Amino acid sequence: MARTAPSRLQVLANFCAAAAESMGYTLMRTAHSTFVKETEDFSCQILSREGLTVASPTTMGATWYTGLDYSRVIGRFDYREGDICVVSDPYSGFVATHAPDLHMWRPVFHQGELICFVGNHIHNTDVGGAVPASLSRTLTEVHQEGLRIPPMRLMRDGQMNEDLLAMIETNVRLPDQNHGDLLAQIACTEVGARKMQDVIARFGPADFTEGLAGLLDYAEAQARAIIRDLPDGEYCFADYADEDQTGGYPVRICVTLRVRGDELEVDYTGSDPQLVSSLNMPTGGYPRHSLAMVGVVYALYCLDPTVMLNYGLVRPVRAVLPEGSVVNPVKPAAVGMRSLLSNLAQTAVIGAFARIVPDRMPASPGNGLSILNVRTSTRDGRPVMASIGPVGGGAGGGPRADGAEGCGANMSFLKNTPVEINEAEVPIDILRYGLVPDSGGPGRWRGGSGLEMEFRVSAPQTMVTARNRDRSRFGAWGLAGGKAGLQSTFTRNPDSETPEELGSIDLVPCAPGDVIRLRGPGAGGYGDPLERPVDEVMTDIRRGFITPDHAQTHYGLVLTPGGLPDPAATKTARARIAAERPPESGFCSNRQEFEAVWTPARYAALTAILAALPVNWRYFIKHAIFAEIGTTPAPDPAETHRVTAAFAKLRARYPELPEVAL
């Protein structure tokens, strides 16, 4: 069918997509937790017999899992009608990527023959562990991050594994909620299996199986056509998270894209060593791991929105994921906050693509999207814990349009929870929920604004967790003359006499009456801000996206006392700004200052040293060399002597360190 009837192949694609959408609706409408039914942190897949994603919903749920590959766990079992298997351990097959994500798959049979699978995953609000909601960057081992389930049968011949169910409910803080969400996942697979049996009967098992292979082949051909259109070469980009632990040094993700004909290599060499915190990204080194491929899928879709979104799209791509690095940590490294670094990896990949085709790619999204959870209690003492929604930034400005406001961009699949739902389910008062003025990066096409949420808690021993806090130091980068977006802020009791800036802290104990204000980061702008038409700047002012002072400083728009544009003064102001400003790098001042110290040459020298060390030494030596180098800029961009000298000093201090050729 794939070779002889392309129209019939498209019909099959539509049937599979519809089945996946039905699965998604079932899961969303029957789930118990806000994080699934409102925020929509879930996925559903139609899987080939080998376990490769062929279709997934496009209007709901997580878009990170287009290229999800279950083959590393599917082959561990024999299957019968009514079987369901699960996994949540991030080191067992590298399908689940942190403990709260419970992945589930079910075989689909036709007349006794195994034809395909259906699968799904949800993010459970809590799976036990050291902290409420299970996740914090302060955790140092995966064992602290809650219950981890290796690949196991949840159901055999339609009968529940009650022992496994009891183990789950014993180890989580909200067993009724987890149980309800688990039943929703089971219902989702039942709907998927039923829908796919209908599709198999319609097409016939042979045509259906050949058709699934054809859909994967078609997506692969589309990807190869896009890559073939790019100029061959090597393109590098790096991006940074604020800190590698609470109060630590920045985390670097480095990506080198190598375009060779119709194939693409994504080399993460130069990224930091694995961390003694939970930001690590567990990939197992698999060259097409979904977390390593998300940015590639987004970029390919940006270059051609007609691509078919399935595993075939990443077949022409190979990732290099150095073992013992943040993109391929060694067990038992903590990985619960892997989404922060996965976001960063996505922006680094997008930045590398922007080196190739800057006229077809957007500036950096806001990133730093914080997922807020509150553990508190009601007036009568009943414990409550729920996600109250993501708070992040907007989309980057692009070659032809402003970035969308407060949408989350590459995390936009996480929907906002309505204020009414939050206040009904959690005893808090939301005081403000809106956009942050002046946060979007200035440009001919402005970056999207960040979101702001402010709320007051009412019970003692309340704990607020803000997972993925970032971009409080390094703003989202601009492109093609656009400027960086405004950094995020996190404040306790902001309007009191003693406001407390929390930085990237993600665990905040609160007393009755405490107010928490979280402002997400703005996205980067695209193009010269002085080329933005005056009427568009005025529209931004009227809508509250920017203030008049911001408009004058960055866009050169001068207003009359009556609030109207002053054409002559605006022309003069724009000419003065153009004459006085330095070349625009698109990076915030914090990044420019950091990279004046940690140049690409110094980072290359550091990477070579760390790669030669045992994994357990790398993070420690990175910190020691950073402390030795300090904040003095490199005298020459090519200078590496201070890095090698710092390591030589450490070798003298720690004779256990192995020899490294410097």
From TrEMBL:
One of the protein's GO biological processes: glutathione metabolic process
Record-level GO cellular component terms: cytosol
Endpoints of the signal sequence: none
Gene Ontology terms for molecular function: 5-oxoprolinase (ATP-hydrolyzing) activity
Entries under Pfam families matching the protein: Hydantoinase_B
PANTHER family in the cross-refs: 5-OXOPROLINASE RELATED, HYPOTHETICAL 5-OXOPROLINASE (EUROFUNG)-RELATED
Protein name: Hydantoinase B/oxoprolinase family protein
Protein source organism: Szabonella alba
Organism placement in taxonomy: Bacteria, Pseudomonadati, Pseudomonadota, Alphaproteobacteria, Rhodobacterales
